[in-house]
Design brief:
Helix content: 55-70%
Radius of gyration: 16 Å
Number of strands: 0
Strand content: under 5%
């Protein structure tokens, strides 16, 4: 049983399947972070502007996936 005081306004409790899906999204986020860190190495001659664009778009996509699973009831 979950204590109602531990709930954050606008967030609903997740069931086991949703928790598993959320953990997959979080794992993907760590993989994306590691890939970006690799591509930002000084010895690689990649266009840093596009790496930063990719970082921002990946963050946006991961946030969207998180919200899709959590189905928050706020703006």
């Amino acid at each position: 049983m979950q204590n109602d005081e531990s709930l954050i306004t606008g967030h609903k409790p997740l069931n086991a399947a949703q928790i598993g899906d959320m953990n997959m999204v979080k794992h993907l986020g760590k993989q994306c972070r590691d890939l970006i860190a690799y591509l930002e190495q000084e010895n690689l001659d990649y266009d840093r502007r596009w790496v930063e664009v990719a970082r921002t778009q990946m963050q946006l996509g991961l946030m969207a996936l998180t919200r899709a699973v959590a189905k928050n009831d706020f703006f």
